[in-house]
Amino acid sequence: MLLCWILAGSAALLALASFRGERRRAAYFRASLDAHSAYAPPVTLIVPVKGPEPGLARNLAAFAALDYPDYELIVAAQCAADIPSGVLPPRVKVVLALGGSPQACEKVRNLVAATGAARRASTVFAFADSDARVNPGWLRALVAPLAEPAVGASTAYRWFLPEPPGLWSLLRAVWDSVTLGVLGPGDNPFAWGGSMALRRVVFLDAEVAQAWKTAITDDYTLAGAVHRAGLRIAFAPGALAPSPEPIRARAFFSWARRQLLLTRAYSRKLWQAALAAHLVYCAGMAAAGAAWIRGSPAAPWLLAAQLLPGMAKGWGRVRMARAALPSYAPWFRRWAWIHVLLVPVATWLWLAVLLSSAVGSSIRWRGLRYALPHRGSPTRPDGHQGTPEC
User: Fold this and answer.
1) What mean pLDDT is predicted for residues 17-31?
2) Strands 195-199, 124-128: parallel, antiparallel or unpaired by DSSP?
3) Distances (CA, A) of 178 to 204, 318, 343
4) Whole-angstrom distance, CA of residue 64 vs CA of residue 61
5) Residues 159-212: pLDDT tens digits?
6) Whole-prediction pTM value?
7) CA of residue 257 relative to chain centroid, distance
8) Do 325 and 242 meet the contact criterion of CB atoms below 8 Å apart?
9) Do 87 and 60 touch, CB atoms closer than 8 A?
């Protein structure tokens, strides 16, 4: 019984401690959305594509219709067959990698080829994922933090607004939104490849393209290069990238495990911290639930002390996302509640996926398999050893 109370009490204390800093994060989010930066240098925006996906034509059309004074849009692919017919908007530039480093994943090879083909006039490189359907002000918000010389890269994150909103699509939305809570003011621990930008001079000086030659992840590798250059990664809330993509159970677990396998390989401390926290959370919930079943009058209060901070954080995240994505107000009116009530379920899903990602030496992405870098490898954390196989 004593162990039960230790576990439940520890989880409650951790949940309360995790709530610290949320007010500062929310204030930063609001201030960033209200700011209007005049910094808008010429940009090359690169979107890699790999075969058909739901809404691809509409997503690319959104990237072609941004409210930004001077940018070129590059759609990058390994070969012409990877770009479905009829999805390209007018005046888009297509770059085909047609090979590249055999040690890097296809997405990274596509990015290397696209940055090499960028127009000379662009002083900023921006990167996005093809499953996002961004709003017109997305690029301006993403580029704005780069006006500060100490900022090496800017990043936002995604927000899933699935259509149709099936059970697993909604669960993924809640599960994935937890990561948004890691980003905030000051230097951030990572950049997210679906919405990130950096000045061209930083890209060259930090030797990002060189680091990418043996990488199977674009964002962790870029973040490592930027940090080694002594620069910060700034969070750009206004560049939140909405994704309407639905998903089913099997695809969700495959996708989520791949994200955390890459985190384990390239940001091991971040992965270890997440595993430790979720072990405590879930053990505490189980202990409080067991005590409640045994009739303990204090157990419901202890369980509430564990759950309510996380649910409050979920509500805070959804409020911030709704402020950043006003055009999706109808979706939020209907489904915002999931980011409160499904947080306990998402906590157990996090634990399940974290445990499953504790083992494994490769990932599978878009039909190709890639070996993860081994711990202690001379290329880690900027690359991997081994070659992709179909």
Assistant:
1) 89
2) antiparallel
3) 33, 10, 9
4) 5
5) 999 999 999 999 999 999 999 999 999 999 999 999 999 999 999 999 999 999
6) 0.92
7) 14
8) yes
9) yes
DSSP letters for 340-375: HHTHHHHHHHHHHHHHHTTS-SEEEETTEEEEPPPT
Cα-trace Rg, the chain: 21
pLDDT in tens, 320-372: 999 999 999 999 999 999 999 999 999 999 999 999 999 999 998 877 889 99
Alpha helices (H) in the chain, listed in sequence order: 2-18, 22-34, 56-64, 106-117, 138-143, 167-180, 200-205, 208-212, 218-228, 249-266, 268-293, 299-324, 329-335, 338-341, 343-356
pLDDT above 70 for 386: no
Integer CA distances (angstroms), 246 to 79, 107, 126, 257, in order:
26, 22, 25, 17
User: b/e string for 77-100 if b means 16 or more Cβ within 10 A?
Assistant: bbeeebbeeebbbeebbebbbeeb
pLDDT tens per residue across span 214-272: 899 999 999 999 999 999 999 999 999 999 999 999 999 999 999 999 999 999 999 99
- Characterize the bridge pairing of strands 71-77 and 43-48: parallel
Comparing CA positions, the residue from 152, 141, 243, 133 lying closest to residue 191 is 152
Residue positions counted in the chain: 390
